[in-house]
Specification:
By secondary structure, this protein is an alpha/beta fold. The chain is about 45% helix and about 15% strand. It has two domains: about 5-125 and about 170-225 and about 400-470, Rossmann fold; about 235-395, no CATH class. It has helices at about 5-10, 95-100, 105-110, 130-135, 145-165, 175-190, 200-210, 230-255, 265-280, 290-300, 305-315, 320-335, 340-350, 355-370, 375-380, 420-425, 450-460; strands at about 30, 45-50, 60-70, 80-85, 110-115, 195-200, 215-220, 405-410, 430-440, 470. Pfam families: Abhydrolase_1 (PF00561).
Length: about 475
């Protein structure tokens, strides 16, 4: 998912992305990645050719951009470990840093990061009308005129992305992304796909297990998305999760030396409410309510960013919106083609469609579970309103014969709530669910020693933790 910390990592690693192109129909031709600094100086780059339409394997091909850090212990190499990014719209720059946090894995595995189709350097989806940041800046609509204006702007952006995506607009979903993974597995020379899949990447991994159960190796689903939920259900879950995380942010503020939001949770939340109300009618310099909500909602899933968010909120409460606005603008500036890819892939995956009147009605339900952010989240339903129903998914009917799959969920995850992660585990007959008592989106590679220890052990020797394991 689209968090400020992950976008900051993306921007910092942009210099690592240029990759060489292999000969057509060959396996990866690895060459050193330009400008890869130590300790990533072993990283190599290549491209893997896959069918644009897997129903027509002999037809048009696209190139999937891949990077590899070869296993240091070649004598005891376990194969490749493919890290599937989230989003949708996240690329390999969000997953390469995992290697720095897991040196034991890089000893034994070739660490594989890649840009999924439509993302980064893999036939990137772009919008002919670059209006995505304007949509991200929108204040939540209140009046019929506001709703009409939001509908016009959002659907204009979505339709421009659909036009810019071309044939990819109907071929960018989870099923084809999973089929790409099997081509990649074969190109890497692996009999089984070993993978760590985060967030939306979990939907791709579950789809892979459905389509290719005999090829599943060691699979970790890290705060996975749920491939059986509608777009509306996913967004409603996220709206409720953001509201819960805001309360956690208020509690965190009270643990700091000086909390500028208030002296207890209720006071802190009232301060944020007052700020958002004031910004709706009177921006604080460059800071509007839309930008403030963008900064808040993208930081809430990433607790390491909370101190900076609190600084921005504290300054905004005194009338200086510069810091919080800059945090939001940095997100937009570093997003690459994330917004376009995210919109197109979601619309390709999800069959449900909602016109303006439906969304106005739905916004009331969203506001009931999230008074502060629900209306803003509900407007995302407009992105797919003019699209035909998405067909990018396959039915998930169970995966007999798949080896144990480790599923990780945080109790305080706003984007992959634990009840949904538990449902994902239920889709996999062999799943082992590990519950981590913590805030934030993502359990593995986020500094939780207990989670990392169990997950590393599973990936290195194939032994998952017992059912019912919790951390810490």
């Amino acid at each position: 998912m689209f968090t400020r910390r992950r976008i900051a990592v993306l921007a910092a690693l942009m210099s690592l992305t240029a990759c060489a192109t292999p000969a057509p129909d060959a396996g990866p031709r690895w060459t050193p990645c330009p400008s890869a600094p130590s300790p990533l100086d072993r990283m190599e780059c290549a491209e893997v050719s896959v069918p644009l339409d897997h129903a027509d394997p002999g037809g048009e091909k696209i190139e999937i951009s891949v990077s590899r850090i070869p296993a240091a212990d070649r004598a005891n190499r376990l194969g490749s470990l493919v890290v599937i990014p989230g989003g949708p719209g996240g690329g390999r720059d969000l997953t390469v840093p995992f290697a720095l946090a897991h040196p034991r894995l890089v000893e034994r595995y070739d660490w594989i990061a890649y840009d999924p189709r439509g993302v980064g350097e893999s036939e990137p989806i772009t919008c002919r009308d670059e209006a995505g940041d304007a949509v991200a800046r929108l204040n939540p609509p209140r009046t019929p005129a506001d709703w009409a204006a939001a509908d016009t702007r959002i659907t204009r952006f979505a339709e421009a992305c659909r036009a810019g995506a071309g044939r990819m607009a109907s071929l960018a979903g989870a099923a084809n992304a999973a089929r790409d993974l099997d081509v990649l597995r074969t190109a890497l020379g692996d009999a089984k796909l070993n993978t760590v899949a985060t967030s939306y990447g979990g939907q791709v991994a579950v789809t892979y297990a459905q389509l290719f159960p005999a090829s599943v190796g060691r699979m970790v689903l890290n705060s996975p998305g749920n491939p059986t939920k509608t777009h509306r259900q996913v967004l409603l879950d996220q709206a409720a999760g953001l509201e819960r995380s805001l309360a956690s942010l208020a509690d965190f503020c009270l643990t700091q030396d000086r909390c500028r939001l208030g002296t207890d949770r209720a006071a802190a939340l009232r301060s944020i409410d007052e700020l958002l109300r004031r910004l709706e009618s009177a921006p604080a310099g460059p800071l509007t309510r839309g930008l403030a909500e963008l900064a808040i909602t993208t930081a809430l899933p990433a607790p390491p960013t909370w101190p900076a968010l609190l600084d921005g909120l504290g300054a905004a409460l005194t009338g200086d919106g510069t810091m919080l606005a800059a945090q939001a603008e940095a997100l937009l500036a570093g997003a690459g083609n994330f917004l376009a890819a995210n919109s197109v892939i979601n619309c390709t995956d999800t069959p449900d469609r909602h016109r303006l009147a439906d969304v106005e009605t739905a916004a009331k339900e969203f506001a009931a579970v999230s008074p502060r952010f629900g209306v803003r989240v509900a407007t995302r339903l407009l992105e797919c309103s003019r699209w035909p129903p998405g067909t990018g998914r396959v039915a998930i009917t169970g995966t007999p014969g798949v080896p144990p799959v480790l599923v990780l969920g945080n109790t305080g995850d706003p984007e992959a709530p634990l009840h949904s992660v538990t449902q994902v585990a239920g889709l996999l007959l062999s799943a082992r669910l590990l519950v981590n008592h913590a805030d934030g989106h993502g359990a593995y590679g986020e500094g939780f020693g207990c989670v990392d220890a169990h997950t590393d052990r599973y990936l290195l020797d194939g032994t998952p933790p017992p059912s019912g394991t919790t951390c810490p």
